[in-house]
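In this supplementary section we document a worked example of the pipeline. Step one takes a protein sequence of length 285 as its only input; no multiple sequence alignment statistics are reported here. Step two produces a three-dimensional model, which step three serialises into C-alpha cells for compact storage. The input and output of this example are shown verbatim.
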Amino acid sequence: MEVKGFWHWVRHTLRLFALYGKMDTLGLMRSMGMLLTMMLSDTVLNIAAVMGMLLLAERFGGIGNWSKYQVLFLLGYGGLVDGIINVFFGYNVAFISRRLGRGQFDHTLIQPQPIVVSLLTEGFNPAFGLPSLLPGTVLLGIALPHLVLPQIAGWWFLFAINMVASVAVVLAFQFAFGSLAFRAPRATEEISSSTMHLLMQLKSFPLDGLGAVLTGSLLTAVPVGGVAWLPCRALLGMGGGVTSYWLTPLLSMVLALVAVVTFWKGLQYYGRVGSQRYSNFGHRN
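The serialised model returned by step three reads:
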C-alpha cells in the first residue's frame, strides 16, 4: 500500500505540473504584445544584473584568482539557479512570506493533498520563467569551451547535483526567514523580498580572500556562498579535492533541516491562532 501510495502521489504531482504549466502558457499567450514585452524586459533585466561583473572581468582579465571565463561560468551558474527558482517556484512560493502575511496560505491548507505537493507544484510557471533561464544558459555555453575542467567521470552529474543543492540553499533560506510571517504577518510580509534580493545581488561575487569568519558567515548565517561560489569552485577544480563536490549538497541538507523545523514550528503556531491578517492580496477583503 505504501508503494502504491507513493506512485499515486508521483503521478498526481506530474499531473499538477502539466496543469499549472498549461495554465501559465495560456495566460502568457493571450497577448503577443505582452509576451514580447515580458521576454524583452526580463532578458534586459537579467543581463543588466551581471553586466558589472562581466565588465570587471573583461577589463582586468579576471577577478582575483578567477580567470575571465571562470567568472563567466560563475555568473552563468548563478543565473541558472535564479532561472530555475523563477520557473519552478514562482507565484510567491519562493517569496513565501507574502503568502503567509497576506493570508493566502489558507488556500494551500484546505487543499486535499500534502502541503509539500502544493508548494512543489503551485509555483511552476515555465512560460513566464523562461526568459530568466536564457542569460545563465548562454553564459555557461560561452564559458565552457574555454575552461579546462577536471577529467573525472560524471562531471555533468555532479553539476546537476550541485545545481539542485544551490536551489535548495536559496529555498531553505527563504522559508527559514519567511516563516517569521506566521507570527508577524504585517511586519514581515515582504521579508522574503529582502532576503531574495540579498542572495541574488551577492551570489556571483568570488568570496576568496575574505577570511575564515566572514566566509563562514556567508556560507551559514547568510548562505550567499552556497548559491554559486562554493559549487563553482568545486566544479572548476578550485575546491581542493573530490570531497569539495559534496560540500554544497551537505550545506543544503543542513539548511533545509533548519528551514523545515522553523516552518513546522510556525505552522503549529498558525494552527492555533489562525490568520491574523487578510489584505487585498489575500482571499478576503
